[in-house]
């Protein structure tokens, strides 16, 4: 059971310092001990000598089961990863000629996305002669901002990118 050089804490003979601050298997502080004596005590207990705090002066080493220690560290990391909330960007696509019912469905979806804690990207594609009526698109975007005002804040104001107008809404904290 030898870890790679950057695979975590140094154990047993990989510890190169001459003295360590030792904590025994029961968690009691043994004080500053020579590395040979610490390795001997770990072997008597049938466990490993693990460097838990390499930056301390002298480094802190603990007598424990290395396999169990790695398992617990991995479990803690998985638990922390599980508690993280990822924020996705959901997209709602519209057209400047959108009808009332279609608009209501899109707004219902946008509202649901925001309540789930996701960001919403509202995009509107202008085709052909619709480019001459960008004001209609701006009015629709203003209406969206009004309706979702209590749920969302505008992260990216409505802007044009080629033939597409877009805006990003973020949920209010």
Rg on CA atoms, Å = 30 Å
Distance between the termini: 47 Å
Q: What percent of the residues sit in helical stretches (DSSP H or I)?
A: 25-40%
Q: Uncertain segments of ≥5 residues (pLDDT<50)?
A: none
- Mean pLDDT score: 86
**Sheet with the most strands?**
4 strands, mixed
Number of contiguous helices: 4
Topology as a string of helices (H) and strands (E) = EEHEEHEHEHEE
Shape: rod-shaped
Q: Within the largest sheet, what's the order of strands?
A: 2-1-4-3
Q: Briefly note the structural class of the backbone.
A: alpha/beta
Q: In percent terms, what proportion of residues is strand? A: 25-35%
Please count the beta strands (DSSP E, at least 2 residues each).
8
How is the secondary structure organized here?
Layout lengths: L18 E5 L5 E6 H11 L2 E6 L6 E5 L1 H18 L5 E6 L5 H16 L3 E7 L8 H14 L4 E10 L2 E8 L2
List keywords for this structure.
173 residues, alpha/beta, four-stranded mixed β-sheet, 4 helices, 8 strands, 34% helix
């Amino acid at each position: 059971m030898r870890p790679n050089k950057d695979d975590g804490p140094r154990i047993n003979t990989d510890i190169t310092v001459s003295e360590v601050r030792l904590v025994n298997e029961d968690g009691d502080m043994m004080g500053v001990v020579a590395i040979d004596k610490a390795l001997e005590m770990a072997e008597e207990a049938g466990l490993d000598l693990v460097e838990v705090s390499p930056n301390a002066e002298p480094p802190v080493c603990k007598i424990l089961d290395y396999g169990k220690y790695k398992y617990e560290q991995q479990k803690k990391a998985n638990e922390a990863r599980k508690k993280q909330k990822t924020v996705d960007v959901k997209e709602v696509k519209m057209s400047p000629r959108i009808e009332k019912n279609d608009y209501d469905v899109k707004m219902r979806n946008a509202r649901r996305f925001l309540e789930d804690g996701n960001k919403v990207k509202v995009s509107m594609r202008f085709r052909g002669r619709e480019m001459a009526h960008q004001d209609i698109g701006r009015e629709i975007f203003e209406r969206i901002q009004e309706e979702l005002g209590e749920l969302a804040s505008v992260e990216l104001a409505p802007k044009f990118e080629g033939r597409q107008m877009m805006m990003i809404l973020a949920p209010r904290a």
